[in-house]
Design brief:
By secondary structure, this protein is α/β, with parallel strands linked by helices. It contains 9 helices and 6 strands, in the order βαααααβαβαβαββα. 44% of the residues lie in helices and 11% in strands. The protein has a 6-stranded parallel beta sheet with strand order 3-2-1-4-5-6, sandwiched between helices. Helix 1 crosses helix 4. The radius of gyration is 17 Å and the shape is globular. The protein binds 6-O-phosphono-beta-D-glucopyranose and magnesium ion.
Protein backbone atom coordinates (compact mmCIF):
# COMPACT_ATOMS: atom_id res chain seq x y z
CA UNK A 1 0.00 0.00 0.00
CA UNK A 2 1.29 3.45 -0.89
CA UNK A 3 2.22 5.87 1.89
CA UNK A 4 -0.29 8.73 2.00
CA UNK A 5 0.04 10.17 5.50
CA UNK A 6 2.49 11.18 8.20
CA UNK A 7 1.54 11.25 11.89
CA UNK A 8 3.92 13.16 14.13
CA UNK A 9 4.46 12.99 17.85
CA UNK A 10 5.08 16.50 19.21
CA UNK A 11 7.43 16.57 22.22
CA UNK A 12 10.93 15.56 21.14
CA UNK A 13 10.03 15.16 17.45
CA UNK A 14 8.82 18.58 16.29
CA UNK A 15 9.94 20.68 19.26
CA UNK A 16 12.45 20.15 22.03
CA UNK A 17 9.96 20.34 24.89
CA UNK A 18 11.34 17.06 26.28
CA UNK A 19 13.92 19.19 28.14
CA UNK A 20 11.14 21.27 29.72
CA UNK A 21 9.20 18.18 30.81
CA UNK A 22 12.44 16.85 32.34
CA UNK A 23 13.11 20.09 34.17
CA UNK A 24 9.59 20.30 35.61
CA UNK A 25 9.37 16.61 36.60
CA UNK A 26 12.78 16.77 38.23
CA UNK A 27 11.75 19.83 40.23
CA UNK A 28 8.55 18.10 41.35
CA UNK A 29 10.23 14.76 42.15
CA UNK A 30 12.95 16.47 44.19
CA UNK A 31 10.33 18.53 46.05
CA UNK A 32 8.80 15.29 47.37
CA UNK A 33 12.18 13.71 48.11
CA UNK A 34 12.50 11.52 45.03
CA UNK A 35 15.64 11.39 42.86
CA UNK A 36 15.06 11.94 39.16
CA UNK A 37 17.70 11.52 36.47
CA UNK A 38 17.80 12.05 32.71
CA UNK A 39 17.66 8.23 32.34
CA UNK A 40 14.46 8.17 34.42
CA UNK A 41 13.06 10.88 32.16
CA UNK A 42 13.69 8.72 29.09
CA UNK A 43 11.24 6.15 30.46
CA UNK A 44 8.53 8.79 30.86
CA UNK A 45 8.71 10.03 27.28
CA UNK A 46 5.40 9.55 25.51
CA UNK A 47 3.50 8.67 28.68
CA UNK A 48 0.57 10.75 29.91
CA UNK A 49 0.99 13.16 32.81
CA UNK A 50 -0.81 10.76 35.18
CA UNK A 51 1.15 7.68 34.11
CA UNK A 52 4.39 9.66 34.45
CA UNK A 53 3.62 10.80 37.98
CA UNK A 54 2.50 7.31 39.03
CA UNK A 55 5.88 5.97 37.91
CA UNK A 56 7.80 8.69 39.77
CA UNK A 57 5.85 7.85 42.95
CA UNK A 58 6.52 4.15 42.42
CA UNK A 59 10.27 4.69 41.91
CA UNK A 60 10.39 6.78 45.08
CA UNK A 61 8.28 4.28 47.02
CA UNK A 62 5.75 6.98 47.79
CA UNK A 63 2.01 7.14 47.80
CA UNK A 64 -0.34 10.08 48.22
CA UNK A 65 -4.07 10.76 48.24
CA UNK A 66 -5.68 11.36 44.84
CA UNK A 67 -6.37 15.01 45.60
CA UNK A 68 -2.75 15.75 46.52
CA UNK A 69 -1.63 13.95 43.38
CA UNK A 70 -3.82 16.25 41.30
CA UNK A 71 -2.32 19.30 43.03
CA UNK A 72 1.24 18.12 42.39
CA UNK A 73 0.50 17.45 38.73
CA UNK A 74 -1.01 20.91 38.36
CA UNK A 75 2.11 22.37 39.93
CA UNK A 76 4.33 20.45 37.49
CA UNK A 77 2.21 21.72 34.64
CA UNK A 78 2.46 25.33 35.88
CA UNK A 79 6.26 25.06 35.90
CA UNK A 80 6.19 23.47 32.47
CA UNK A 81 3.92 26.19 31.09
CA UNK A 82 6.25 28.88 32.45
CA UNK A 83 8.86 27.53 30.02
CA UNK A 84 6.38 26.92 27.18
CA UNK A 85 5.09 30.49 27.46
CA UNK A 86 8.34 31.78 25.97
CA UNK A 87 8.31 29.41 22.99
CA UNK A 88 8.24 30.54 19.37
CA UNK A 89 9.16 29.17 15.91
CA UNK A 90 12.86 29.20 16.85
CA UNK A 91 12.21 26.10 18.98
CA UNK A 92 11.10 23.96 16.05
CA UNK A 93 13.69 21.18 15.77
CA UNK A 94 16.26 21.22 12.91
CA UNK A 95 14.92 20.22 9.51
CA UNK A 96 11.28 19.99 10.55
CA UNK A 97 9.93 23.03 8.71
CA UNK A 98 11.61 22.09 5.42
CA UNK A 99 10.48 18.47 5.82
CA UNK A 100 6.86 19.44 6.46
CA UNK A 101 6.84 22.05 3.67
CA UNK A 102 7.93 19.37 1.22
CA UNK A 103 5.48 16.76 2.55
CA UNK A 104 2.65 19.26 2.20
CA UNK A 105 3.72 20.12 -1.36
CA UNK A 106 3.67 16.38 -2.18
CA UNK A 107 0.08 16.13 -0.94
CA UNK A 108 0.91 13.95 2.05
CA UNK A 109 -1.77 14.26 4.74
CA UNK A 110 -0.44 15.17 8.16
CA UNK A 111 -1.78 14.70 11.68
CA UNK A 112 -0.45 15.21 15.17
CA UNK A 113 -0.53 12.25 17.57
CA UNK A 114 0.58 13.48 20.98
CA UNK A 115 -0.13 12.55 24.59
CA UNK A 116 0.15 16.17 25.65
CA UNK A 117 -2.82 18.25 26.70
CA UNK A 118 -0.65 21.29 26.00
CA UNK A 119 -0.21 20.36 22.33
CA UNK A 120 -2.66 22.95 20.87
CA UNK A 121 -0.90 25.77 22.72
CA UNK A 122 2.55 24.66 21.54
CA UNK A 123 1.35 24.28 17.93
CA UNK A 124 -0.02 27.84 18.04
CA UNK A 125 3.08 29.36 19.64
CA UNK A 126 5.45 27.77 17.14
CA UNK A 127 3.19 28.18 14.09
CA UNK A 128 3.31 24.43 13.41
CA UNK A 129 -0.50 24.32 13.47
CA UNK A 130 -0.54 25.36 9.78
CA UNK A 131 0.64 21.90 8.68
CA UNK A 132 -2.03 19.74 10.29
CA UNK A 133 -5.27 18.44 8.88
CA UNK A 134 -5.97 16.78 12.23
CA UNK A 135 -4.67 17.27 15.76
CA UNK A 136 -5.12 14.36 18.17
CA UNK A 137 -3.70 14.96 21.63
CA UNK A 138 -4.17 14.14 25.30
CA UNK A 139 -7.46 16.04 25.32
CA UNK A 140 -9.11 13.51 22.98
CA UNK A 141 -7.62 10.22 24.13
CA UNK A 142 -8.65 7.89 26.92
CA UNK A 143 -5.74 5.46 26.61
CA UNK A 144 -2.13 6.51 26.69
CA UNK A 145 0.82 5.22 24.62
CA UNK A 146 1.85 2.36 24.27
CA UNK A 147 -1.85 1.96 23.42
CA UNK A 148 -2.27 2.83 19.71
CA UNK A 149 -5.46 4.87 20.25
CA UNK A 150 -3.91 8.29 19.54
CA UNK A 151 -2.49 7.16 16.17
CA UNK A 152 -5.61 5.22 15.18
CA UNK A 153 -7.70 8.34 15.80
CA UNK A 154 -5.21 10.32 13.71
CA UNK A 155 -5.41 7.87 10.79
CA UNK A 156 -9.20 7.89 11.00
CA UNK A 157 -9.31 11.70 10.97
CA UNK A 158 -7.10 11.72 7.85
CA UNK A 159 -9.13 8.96 6.19
CA UNK A 160 -6.20 6.56 5.75
CA UNK A 161 -5.39 3.02 6.90
CA UNK A 162 -2.54 2.54 9.40
CA UNK A 163 -0.59 0.68 6.68
CA UNK A 164 -0.63 3.86 4.58
CA UNK A 165 0.75 6.07 7.36
CA UNK A 166 4.16 6.66 8.91
CA UNK A 167 4.45 7.54 12.61
CA UNK A 168 7.39 9.73 13.73
CA UNK A 169 8.26 9.14 17.38
CA UNK A 170 11.05 9.78 19.89
CA UNK A 171 9.71 7.53 22.65
CA UNK A 172 9.75 3.78 23.11
CA UNK A 173 6.10 3.83 24.25
CA UNK A 174 5.21 5.71 21.04
CA UNK A 175 7.05 3.31 18.72
CA UNK A 176 5.38 0.43 20.54
CA UNK A 177 1.97 2.09 20.06
CA UNK A 178 2.59 2.64 16.35
CA UNK A 179 3.71 -0.97 15.78
CA UNK A 180 0.67 -2.31 17.64
CA UNK A 181 -1.56 -0.08 15.52
CA UNK A 182 -0.05 -1.41 12.28
CA UNK A 183 1.78 1.80 11.27
CA UNK A 184 5.19 2.21 9.67
CA UNK A 185 7.67 3.75 12.12
CA UNK A 186 10.42 6.35 12.04
CA UNK A 187 12.36 6.75 15.28
CA UNK A 188 13.92 10.08 16.19
CA UNK A 189 16.79 9.50 18.61
CA UNK A 190 19.50 6.93 19.26
CA UNK A 191 19.27 3.16 18.59
CA UNK A 192 19.75 2.30 22.30
CA UNK A 193 16.49 4.07 23.16
CA UNK A 194 14.46 3.00 20.12
CA UNK A 195 15.51 -0.53 19.13
CA UNK A 196 12.15 -1.35 17.53
CA UNK A 197 11.87 1.60 15.12
CA UNK A 198 11.92 0.49 11.45
CA UNK A 199 14.26 3.33 10.53
CA UNK A 200 15.96 5.85 12.79
CA UNK A 201 17.43 9.35 12.52
CA UNK A 202 18.92 11.63 15.15
CA UNK A 203 16.77 14.39 13.65
CA UNK A 204 15.16 15.19 10.29
CA UNK A 205 17.76 17.73 9.15
CA UNK A 206 18.58 17.13 5.46
CA UNK A 207 16.14 14.20 5.33
CA UNK A 208 13.35 14.35 2.74
CA UNK A 209 9.88 12.77 2.72
CA UNK A 210 10.87 10.95 -0.51
CA UNK A 211 13.82 9.30 1.25
CA UNK A 212 11.59 8.11 4.09
CA UNK A 213 8.95 6.78 1.69
CA UNK A 214 11.48 4.90 -0.42
CA UNK A 215 13.13 3.35 2.67
CA UNK A 216 9.76 2.19 3.98
CA UNK A 217 8.28 0.96 0.72
CA UNK A 218 9.12 -2.64 -0.20
C1 LIG B 1 4.20 13.58 25.89
C2 LIG B 1 5.55 13.73 26.55
O1 LIG B 1 4.28 14.08 24.58
O2 LIG B 1 3.19 14.29 26.59
C3 LIG B 1 5.45 13.35 28.02
O3 LIG B 1 6.50 12.93 25.91
C4 LIG B 1 4.33 14.13 28.69
O4 LIG B 1 6.68 13.60 28.64
C5 LIG B 1 3.02 13.89 27.95
O5 LIG B 1 4.18 13.71 30.05
C6 LIG B 1 1.85 14.64 28.56
O6 LIG B 1 2.06 16.01 28.40
P1 LIG B 1 1.28 17.18 29.12
O7 LIG B 1 1.78 18.41 28.42
O8 LIG B 1 -0.19 16.94 28.90
O9 LIG B 1 1.64 17.12 30.56
MG1 LIG C 1 7.77 12.53 22.24
Amino acid sequence: MAIRAFIFDLDGVLVDTAKYHFNAWQRLANSIGVDFTIEDNEKLKGLSREDSFDLILKWGNKSMPAEEKQEKMLLKNDWYLEMVKAMDASEILPGISAFMDEARAMGIKMALGSASRNAPLILEKTGLIQYFEAVIDGNQTTKSKPDPQVFLLGAKALGVNPQEAVVFEDSEAGIEAAITGGFKTVGIGIPENLPKAEILFTNLENITPKQIISKLTP
